[in-house]
Structure formats: structure tokens, C-alpha cells
């Protein structure tokens, strides 16, 4: 047993009257002890459920992110990339109601040389939704079998990289069973959204469900003096995918500046308010194939809606309408399908 870690459990687990929050430095140390398994399984489980109950502070998230930056893998900057990469922080527990759009959006962005880095793992407690890694495997791209050096090569040559946690950050993946055992999503789920597995300047984009998550994350980013641009999206199932059944609420955070808000409405762009429901993998891949061929499908409008925004927001189009038009042209011309083939060839 770790006497040091026991103190951390006592601090956050002492109840509403005597309990306290950790300092940034203590939170960093606690995270490192969990990742390196210096703490015992009983201590780790107790810490995660106690921290779930009291909720993390921005300072605690900042400390935990310090440890992720210290221990976790990072892709390196590529001289030939003219733009900083987009880091999509998407919940590790996957999708259970709506179709994931980020893989198609990532192909569209990288087709116009906007680099993208994704990260994630397998089916994750407590939601057990469809993970993004499944989609890439269906396309014949198996990030699970690639070394970090090979991912770096693919990122350098195609602009797309995927950090697969069980292979590239096994210490973090080692905490996954605790989520199943405690039956709750612990606070480390929030820091995973914010994690930037890249050694240079980047544009971090992550989704959230509850407004306090956004505020706590932005406090953490400010404390860490995060120099790069951060975009938050109240997206589908906590992802970065824009919904069509409600107003899209987006926050743009730049160091030293006030938070900027962007609001988008589907009806301003002639779209219905229907989000494509999650299908079985074969049905979903058939829809993806229609989109990649530039053919009409139930999914196409949502892909154009999302890709249009991200092309505009990441500097690839002058406005939202121009981004949607460009996304359609890239799909119908076959440029996105060619990009998918380039990625397959690079591995």
C-alpha cells in the first residue's frame, strides 16, 4: 500500500464538510501514481469514485494533464505541414445513439492539407458505445497494430494520425477496468478530452455534454498557459460532431483573450433537424461508402454540415457556406476517397 496515495484519497474522500481538493502538484503526483500503479487497485478505485462525487477542479485537471504530457506519447511536428494539426478529443466511451462523423470529417480536412490527430481506444465503460477505431478497421486501416513510429510516418505523409491508447499509452489504458468496476465515468474522462498528444502548436477541439465540464476544462487550460487555440463543442453525445436537432454552441478560447461564442442553426443552411441514428457496422459503412462516392444518403447532410464548419473554423474556407460547398466538391470529385487510399497505402 502507498501511504502517500492514501493521503490523496483522504483529502478528496472526507465528505462535504472536511473534504478538500488537491493542489495541482498533488493531482499530478496522484495521476502518475495511478498510471505507474504505485497505488494499489483498492486505492485507485477509491480515488476515482471519490473524485467522481466531489468533481475535479480546474487546478486538479491541470495537474493531471501535466502528468499526461510527461508520460504519454506525442507525435512530432512535421516540417512539410503548413498548418498546425487539429486534435479531436472525442469521448472514449463511443457512440450509442447517433452515427460518428469525425472519421469522414478528418478525411475531408486532411484532403486539403489540414492535419488531424485522433486518439482513443476500444469499447469503453460505462457506455460501451461504438469506438472510432472500429470504423478505421472497417476501412482496412488498423491503427491498433502500428508502432508509434509508424503512426508518425503516416501522419507525416498523409496528415492523419491516430494514437491508439492500448498500444501507444498502455498505462492510461490500464485504468479502463476501474470504470467498469465502479460503474461510473471518472474525472479522468474529462482530461482525456483535453489531452493533446502532440509536441508542437496545435488546435485542440473537444466535445462536452454538461456546461460545467467546459468551464472546468478552460480553467485548466488557462492554468497550464496553453498557448494554442482550444475549441469546445456541445456536440452529439459529448463528441465534436455538430447536432442538427438543436442550436450548436461552440466556444473558442485563445490565451489571454475572452471566450468567443459561435452559435449555429441547421435551418440557416437549409438542413432538417434530424441527426442520423447509429446503425450496425455494416449498415454504417454502407452509408459511409455513399458519402465517399458523393452520392445522396441519409448521412450526407450531416457530414457537409460538420465538414463545412471545420473547414471554415480551421482556415480551409472563408465561411460556413463556402466550407459546405468545398466539402461537397471534395466528395464528388473523389478527392476524399483518394485521401483514404493514400492513408491505406502509407501503413
TrEMBL record:
Keyword terms, alphabetized: Amino-acid biosynthesis, Aromatic amino acid biosynthesis, Glycosyltransferase, Transferase
One Gene Ontology cellular component: cytosol
Presence of the UniProt keyword Glycosyltransferase in the record: yes
Transmembrane segments: none
Domain Glycosyl transferase family 3 N-terminal: 19-68
Gene3D superfamilies: Nucleoside phosphorylase/phosphoribosyltransferase catalytic domain, Transferase, Pyrimidine Nucleoside Phosphorylase, Chain C
Entries under InterPro entries matching the protein: Anthranilate_Pribosyl_Tfrase, Glycosyl_Trfase_fam3, Glycosyl_Trfase_fam3_N_dom, Glycosyl_Trfase_fam3_N_dom_sf, Nuc_phospho_transferase
Domain of life, per lineage: Bacteria
Glycosyl transferase family domain sequence ranges: 104-335
Keyword set includes Manganese: no
One GO BP: L-tryptophan biosynthetic process
GO molecular function, one term: anthranilate phosphoribosyltransferase activity
NCBIfam families: PRK07394.1
Protein name: Anthranilate phosphoribosyltransferase
Amino acid at each position: 500500500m502507498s501511504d502517500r496515495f492514501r493521503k490523496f484519497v483522504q483529502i478528496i474522500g472526507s465528505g462535504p464538510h472536511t473534504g478538500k481538493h488537491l493542489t495541482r502538484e498533488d493531482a499530478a503526483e496522484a495521476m502518475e501514481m495511478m498510471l505507474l500503479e504505485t497505488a494499489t487497485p483498492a486505492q485507485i478505485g477509491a480515488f476515482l469514485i471519490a473524485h467522481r462525487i466531489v468533481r475535479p477542479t480546474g487546478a486538479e485537471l491541470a495537474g493531471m494533464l501535466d502528468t499526461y504530457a510527461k508520460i504519454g506519447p506525442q507525435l512530432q511536428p512535421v516540417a512539410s505541414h503548413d498548418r498546425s494539426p487539429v486534435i479531436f478529443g472525442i469521448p472514449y466511451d463511443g457512440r450509442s445513439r447517433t452515427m460518428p462523423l469525425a472519421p469522414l470529417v478528418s478525411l475531408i480536412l486532411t484532403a486539403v492539407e489540414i492535419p488531424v490527430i485522433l486518439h482513443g481506444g476500444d469499447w469503453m465503460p460505462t457506455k460501451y458505445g461504438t469506438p472510432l477505431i472500429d470504423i478505421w478497421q472497417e476501412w482496412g486501416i488498423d491503427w491498433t497494430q502500428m508502432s508509434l513510429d509508424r503512426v508518425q510516418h503516416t501522419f507525416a505523409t498523409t496528415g492523419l494520425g491516430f494514437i491508439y491508447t492500448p498500444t501507444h499509452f498502455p498505462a492510461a489504458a490500464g485504468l479502463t477496468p476501474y470504470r467498469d468496476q465502479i460503474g461510473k465515468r471518472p474525472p479522468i474522462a474529462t482530461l482525456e478530452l483535453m489531452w493533446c498528444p502532440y509536441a508542437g502548436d496545435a488546435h485542440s477541439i473537444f466535445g462536452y455534454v454538461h456546461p460545467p465540464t467546459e468551464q472546468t476544462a478552460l480553467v485548466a487550460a488557462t492554468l497550464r498557459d496553453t498557448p494554442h487555440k482550444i475549441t469546445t463543442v456541445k456536440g452529439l453525445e459529448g463528441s465534436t460532431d455538430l447536432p442538427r436537432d438543436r442550436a450548436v454552441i461552440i466556444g473558442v478560447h485563445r490565451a489571454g483573450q475572452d471566450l468567443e461564442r459561435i452559435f449555429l442553426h441547421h435551418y440557416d443552411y437549409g438542413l432538417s433537424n434530424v441527426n442520423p441514428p447509429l446503425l450496425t457496422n455494416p449498415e454504417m459503412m454502407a452509408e459511409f461508402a455513399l458519402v465517399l462516392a458523393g452520392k445522396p444518403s441519409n448521412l450526407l447532410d450531416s457530414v457537409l454540415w460538420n465538414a463545412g464548419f471545420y473547414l471554415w473554423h480551421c482556415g480551409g474556407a472563408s465561411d460556413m457556406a463556402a466550407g459546405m460547398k468545398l466539402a461537397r466538391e471534395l466528395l464528388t470529385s473523389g478527392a476524399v476517397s483518394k485521401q483514404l487510399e493514400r492513408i491505406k497505402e502509407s501503413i
